[in-house]
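Budget justification aside, the reviewers requested a transparent look at the raw inputs and outputs of the sequence design task funded under Objective 1. We therefore reproduce one unedited record. The lines immediately below are the structure tokens for a 105-residue chain.
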């Protein structure tokens, strides 16, 4: 019994698809330019192979969590912000200490 290979049917993107992608890329480019001018890192999300959402914010590695974890973070955002606010001095000292350690190397 002979087997036949299935044929793949692909369609070329339409002009509307191409124009929509160009518009999306232009908007993303403007956001990146604005962030660079504001001395603020570009921030974006991507879905990884494991299904986790990775949050990129201009640092070496992203923060990656699955949907339930992101929802839990969102639910407790006020507590997180209050914690950060109340520990600013401690965090600034730790950053300064880390910079000093790196400078000695």
């Amino acid at each position: 019994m002979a087997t036949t290979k299935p044929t793949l049917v692909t369609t070329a993107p339409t002009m509307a698809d191409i124009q929509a992608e160009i518009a999306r890329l232009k908007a993303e480019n403007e956001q990146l330019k604005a962030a660079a001018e504001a001395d603020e890192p570009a921030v974006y999300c991507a879905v990884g192979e494991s299904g986790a959402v990775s949050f990129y914010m201009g640092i070496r590695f992203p923060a990656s969590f699955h949907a339930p974890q992101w929802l839990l973070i969102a639910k407790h955002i006020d507590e997180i912000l209050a914690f950060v606010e109340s520990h600013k001095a401690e965090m600034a000292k730790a950053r300064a200490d880390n910079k000093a350690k790196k400078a000695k190397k």
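Strands lie at 44-47, 53-56, 63-65. The chain has two domains: 14-65, 66-105. Computational costs for records of this kind are itemized in the attached budget.
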